[in-house]
Design a protein that fits this description.
- The termini are far apart.
- The longest helix is centred in the middle third of the chain and has 12 residues.
- The protein has six helices and twelve strands.
- It has a six-stranded mixed β-sheet, with helices on one face.
- 44% of the residues are buried.
- Helix 3 crosses helix 5.
- 22% of the residues lie in helices and 24% in strands.
- It binds fe (ii) ion (FE2).
- The site of fe (ii) ion has 6 residues, from loops.
């Protein structure tokens, strides 16, 4: 298996490239539209063909590259089935492993950050999306989020994995790249240690986070599998521009 962790700095998103060495096929988990050129370059560098993109959830802080990648290289789009997106080629459900050649990802329905959120388990690692971040978790106050539900998801679906299982989150804002289930169980200040459900609900209720600046554009755009919305204010234009797109010809 070929594996790369790619960072998109504007939204501090991690995109994951997984390639099957037997078939030469690749998939990207949570690709970001403004990193398309970079990501395709990495796919090509490894001699792979991009077959699929998978999103862990409908993102509110960036536009998924799913649709643009489909248009550019013919990759197919997998999204959580319960979103019933007409633009998706496949719906992710927990009951069905997602297979790419010799690679099989086990989707884990982990609602709470959003109601249709999935983590993906792949052998010794789990891609936790925004359900579990390193020393943190995604917010629970938008997109049918719910703190109690997130606590249950993390404790029943993720903290029950092996302590050695590597945790690859969808974001990190402090240059950390990987954790483990054991580390998060012990140290996560919101969900780990002996934190009770009631403590977690209080922590999340008291975060007092600002209204997400891109959510009103990102969510509708991502429900169309990654369309940059019309009328984007100037200060948000960067979210729809390829960061590595060469200015000349
Ligand atoms: Fe998110």
């Amino acid at each position: 298996m070929i594996f790369r962790q790619l960072f998109e700095p504007l939204s501090s998103t991690y995109t994951y490239l997984i390639g099957c060495e037997e078939t030469g096929q690749a998939l990207l988990i949570d690709p970001v539209v403004n990193s398309i050129e970079r990501d395709l370059g990495v796919v090509r560098e490894h001699g792979l063909t991009l077959a699929w993109t998978l999103d862990t959830h409908i993102h509110a802080d960036h536009i998924t590259a799913a649709l643009h990648l489909k248009q550019q290289v013919g990759s197919r789009i997998a999204m959580p089935a319960m979103e019933q997106l007409g633009c998706a080629d496949a719906g992710i459900v927990e009951e069905a492993p997602f297979r790419l050649g010799s690679v099989a990802l086990q989707p884990l329905h982990t609602p709470g950050h959003t109601d249709s959120h999935f983590a993906y388990l792949l052998g010794d690692r789990v891609f936790t999306g925004d359900a579990l971040l390193i020393d943190g978790c995604g917010r629970t106050d938008f997109q049918n989020g719910d703190a109690r539900t997130l606590y249950e998801s993390v404790h029943t679906k993720l903290f029950t994995l092996a302590d050695e299982c590597l945790v690859y989150p969808a974001h990190d804002y402090q240059d950390r790249r990987v954790s483990s289930i054991g580390q998060e169980k012990r140290r996560n200040p919101r969900l780990g240690g002996e934190r009770s459900l009631e403590e977690f609900e209080r922590i999340m209720a008291e975060l007092k986070l600002a209204y997400p600046k891109f959510i009103d554009y990102a969510v509708p755009g991502n429900r169309r599998c990654g369309v940059c919305p019309e009328g984007l204010p100037d200060e948000l234009q960067a979210y729809c521009v390829s960061m590595t797109h060469s200015p000349q010809g």
